[in-house]
Amino acid sequence: xxxxxxxxxxxxxxxxxLNGAIVVSRLVAKEDVRTHGSGNAGLTNxxxxxxxxxxxxxxxxxMGKAVAACxxxxxxxxxxxxxxxxxxxxxxxxxxxHDFPALLxxxxxxxxxxxxxxxxxxxWRIGLFVFGIFLVAYLLTGYVSLGSVLSSGSFGFxxxxxxxxxxxxxxxxxxxxxxxxxxxxxxxxxxxxxxERKTNLFGKGKKQ
Length: 208
Known about the structure:
Elements: H1 2-16, H2 20-29, H3 43-50, H4 55-78, H5 83-99, H6 112-122, H7 124-141, H8 144-162, H9 167-183, H10 185-193
């Protein structure tokens, strides 16, 4: 079982290193998205830098790797009776790989696309609720970061409420909530100061 846990963790982490924004920017523009804008390897900076036309490929890669990581973790631990824990392990490690990718100089994204996806994989009801929080906050304010902080911050609490008594997935839920909020600490400061940029996810550049 120990080998299966280690294997699941390593595979999920390496999948996390497959960053959609970096891959697509290199294929489309022959450059690294991290050399533009905020320097972040995420969807928001990608859309600001290259527009939304090719962002669907970023979404597919970042969501696809999260699905794969959770499935690998679940399947590897299923025979031991720990499918749910395996999914949570995959979720944890793929987000760590996305945020801190060893193969990309430990400079990754902030984990929102992959984070929503692992929430769906851990419990689709919670995933939809979290995505709903993000969507409402973004549509009302135009701030991707605000939607990201509110949605990710709620995940651990909602998961614990619905799955009390399942300690490891609850730990993962709270850890990922805290991690993604922490990754947005700069955005939070700018939001408080009124300096945060709004983003048009359906176009390019700043939302008016």
